Design the sequence.
């Protein structure tokens, strides 16, 4: 089974459209989105519209929940630059959608004699805001996967993709866990300005006692960065956000 | 959030095609499939392809489990000798026509999917299974004793549980009262069958689950379920059975919805 994991689109429609086009070629068996559909750019409603149209199973990110405190400025006219502007663009129906998204998704595989738990979260299982960066100490990550019973822990939020395998086994019996940061579709921060998502392959041999049954591939997709950067400059926020997209930091 | 859930298509492509058309008109936010894509009709590969093409999150049903492993056992509880004989023909036929790629898909489907919601600082656990959380082929009928149903949901940590397998849709609300006397309403929802209904109504069936920001275990009306039935070309599906080596009993079953 091939599963595409996308995350952190951040209202970047040109990037998301390019990823959808790539997914049509890749033909994964299922697609999941790990949140942060909105914020930082001008197309939140269009992105939500496409996610809904494709019926993509999605969890909430921290930016998606920000709309609970920021209300749409429909009918108002403002020339003030504001960090809230990107959230005020979110329409009523889209706001309801964001505020009723699940926080976590869990897939339980029973392909062999054991159970393989795949947990999808935005930041970390503990907090929607926590950054699980690659350089965190192994004992910290081991505690986390044990506490939440996660053999495949998939997350976004930091916009820096990685795949790390850790082993919580004892007494000579291996128990592998895959830590998978999906990277970001609409606002990469790893120095590569192309959109990023993950293609996960779960083979029928997949089990917790071997690391081999699960493969992780990072997909990078070129898109019209200038269009996304200029939309920021023209419509709204600080020039820094546009520069972020161009240089991927 | 409006979530469409469908299951038990059982290789009935004409029914599945109408399901997709119908669900498109309902403006749903997500779609999940609770398994049993194959068996009892002639389009197992086509049904698998239509579901894969749309990237729909899908769990394995007992028939998928059997075909995924090229087993001659679908885990079905046939009662009479006739049913057993017919069942053998169906699984042998399905094993013969399912192609490698589609079999590999069935082989690696997850068993359960859990959606964890959080409203007003409180968790709401929604669990999707094919038969029951305990067994892929356990039948959870509507008349199961309340105590037993509550125990199954408590053990699985499910506030809302959606399942198929029996092909008989229902929504049952159970109150597992907390020790302090407060209500804990749980929802057991059988989503019926797209391609082989058995509740006397031959139309295809599926559900739409409504969860809004007020959804809570304390208010039994805060989670609602819509049961949808759609007409499809039953005759086409029944004729396909009759024109194949599959037993004609399966065609009759499609026409009568039993």
Sequence:
């Amino acid at each position: 089974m091939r599963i595409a994991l996308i995350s952190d689109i951040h209202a970047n429609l040109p990037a998301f459209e390019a990823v959808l086009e790539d997914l049509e070629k890749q033909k994964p068996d299922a697609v999941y989105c790990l949140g942060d559909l909105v914020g930082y750019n001008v197309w939140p409603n269009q992105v939500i519209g496409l996610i809904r149209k494709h019926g993509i199973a999605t969890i909430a990110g921290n930016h998606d929940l920000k709309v609970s405190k920021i209300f749409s400025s429909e009918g108002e006219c403002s020339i003030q630059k504001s960090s809230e502007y990107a959230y005020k663009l979110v329409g009523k129906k889209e706001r309801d959608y964001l505020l009723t998204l699940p926080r976590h998704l869990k897939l339980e595989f029973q392909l062999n004699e054991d159970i393989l738990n795949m947990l999808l979260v935005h930041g970390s299982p503990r907090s929607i805001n926590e950054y699980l960066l690659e350089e965190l100490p192994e004992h910290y990550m081991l505690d986390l996967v044990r506490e939440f019973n996660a053999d495949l822990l998939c997350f976004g939020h930091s916009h820096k993709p990685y795949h790390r395998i850790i082993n919580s086994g004892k007494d000579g019996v291996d128990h592998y866990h895959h830590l998978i940061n999906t990277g970001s579709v609409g606002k990469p921060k790893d120095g590569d300005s192309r959109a990023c998502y993950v293609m996960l392959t779960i083979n029928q041999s997949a089990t917790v006692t071997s690391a081999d049954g699960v493969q992780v591939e990072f997909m990078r997709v070129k898109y019209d960065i200038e269009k996304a950067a200029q939309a920021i400059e023209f419509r709204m926020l600080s020039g820094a956000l546009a520069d972020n997209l161009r240089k991927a930091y | 959030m409006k979530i469409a859930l469908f299951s038990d298509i059982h290789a009935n492509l004409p029914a599945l095609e109408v399901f997709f058309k119908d669900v498109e008109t309902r403006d749903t936010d997500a779609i999940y499939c609770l398994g049993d894509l194959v068996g009892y009709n002639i389009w197992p590969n086509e049904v698998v392809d239509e579901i894969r093409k749309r990237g729909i999150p899908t769990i394995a049903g007992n028939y998928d489990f059997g075909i995924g492993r090229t087993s001659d056992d679908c885990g079905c509880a046939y009662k009479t000798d006739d049913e057993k004989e017919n069942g053998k023909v169906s699984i042998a036929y399905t094993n013969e026509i399912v192609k490698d790629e589609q079999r590999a898909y069935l082989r690696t489907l997850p068993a359960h999917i859990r959606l964890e919601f959080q409203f007003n600082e409180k968790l709401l656990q929604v669990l999707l299974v094919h038969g029951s959380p305990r067994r892929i082929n356990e039948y959870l009928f509507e008349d199961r004793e309340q105590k037993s149903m509550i125990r199954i949901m408590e053990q699985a940590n499910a506030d809302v549980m959606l399942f198929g397998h029996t092909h008989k849709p229902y929504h049952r609300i159970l109150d597992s009262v907390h020790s302090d006397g407060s209500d804990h309403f749980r929802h057991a929802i059988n989503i019926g069958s797209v391609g082989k209904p058995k509740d006397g109504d031959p139309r295809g069936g599926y559900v739409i689950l409504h969860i809004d920001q007020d959804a809570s275990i304390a208010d039994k009306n805060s989670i609602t379920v819509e049961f949808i039935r759609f007409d499809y070309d039953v005759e086409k599906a029944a004729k396909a059975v009759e024109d194949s080596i599959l037993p004609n009993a399966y065609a009759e079953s499609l026409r009568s919805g039993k």
User: Anything to note?
Assistant: Chain B has a mean pLDDT of 97. The helical segments of chain B are 13-24, 44-53, 62-68, 81-97, 100-107, 146-155, 234-242, 249-256.
